[in-house]
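INTERNAL TRANSFER SHEET
From: sequence group
To: structure group
Subject: Nickel-dependent lactate racemase

Please process the attached sequence and return the structure record in the designated field. Keep the field labels unchanged so the import script can parse them.
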Amino acid sequence: MISLKMKYGRDEMLAAVPNQHFMGFIEGKKQANSNTEEEIIQKALNNPIESRSLVEIVYPGDTICIVISDITRAWQKMSLYLPYIVEELNRGGVKDEDITFLCATGSHRKQSRREHSILLGKDLAKRFRVIDHDCRDKEAMVYVGETSYGTPVWINEIAMKSTHIVLTGAIVYHDLAGWSGGKKSILPGIAAYESIMANHGLSLSKTAGGGIHPKVGCGIAIDNPIHEDMLEAANLVKPSFIFNVIMDYRGKIGAAVAGDYIKAHKIGQEKVNAIDGVKIKEKSDLVIVSSGGYPKDINLYQASKALSNAKEAVKKGGTIILVSQCIEGFGDKGVQEIIQDYSENYSQEIELRNNYSIAKYTGYLIAKIAEDYKVILVSEIHPSSLKSIDIQVVTTLKEAIVKAKEDKKEPQKTYCMPYGSNTLPKLDSITIPLR
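Return from structure group:
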């Protein structure tokens, strides 16, 4: 038997599967970096890509807006790398009172002071002003132009009135934008709700019933309208500098890029592909996948990333077991509404086209996957919550494995994905183009 240990919230779940039909673990490369996390951070800041260093860019009297991710991205260890960025700014003559941290919440909820302390670390949280972006506060926005896709770009005025905007974050695969990090800190990060919805509406095909745009998905940049529209929005804002991390298999900072917000991010994409783009020779009958634990499985909204990645490794009609605690339930009313209030994919799509929201898109994506595959969710979500889209909810991984065998006459070829939110399976013949 093959022993499985899958992260579940802040704990783990154990189970075993027969080794006869086990096809292997799909996970990022386990090449531990010989440098410490601190050394990786410093090396990136000292060797910016196509840019001068931060200390050379800023001058005394400059005002700086540092854009940071929200609590759902706490895994990127902001409290570790932000002090180095502040130190660079201070060395350039920038005073603490001229630095503001703006949390790129996009359309997510606001955060507590305790959560700000987790993100920045206690010392920085005490020293600096931390503001949560509110995408619905139009009066706090500045209009900067329109993209070629027709997206009106309204951006938080705190950022736009600053001398320099410094973007921070992490680069992982993203099921809409191709990759997170980079331009995503601008749109949707600190953009108005109107801008966010216009951009994300590009995720659907041009005709009703056509479903998701074929070029929208993880690791896709070329001809991805979401990615290209976000990039145009960032070009209107022109951030001064970027610092993005790439996590390794241990959840530590395994690489980092800094410098020009386009060119540095592209190098980061290549690093992600090298670490988390995992080639497989064939698809399986069953994939057992974990989001990777808290906070990546804090709610179904976040857990959908692992589900989306897992489908790339399983045959149509196959089974996906998703291990995600989801202590905050659906995570957003939009996810719940699209799943529970609409009976099938076409009606869900029409509702999405008429009243688009990112949360509703996520609910639609989950429902679409549940239509194409048998999905079993190991979670604290109430079992009746997902009956409308035929997702079975159980409380243990062992129970899920038993259910996966039901009605199956033949043994199931099985993959295991311990860190599904990060890992993208790719058939050997498929390559991911970059732009």
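Handover comment: The domain at 37-274 is CATH 3.40.50.11440 (Rossmann fold). DSSP finds 14 helices and 20 strands in the chain.
Transfer complete.
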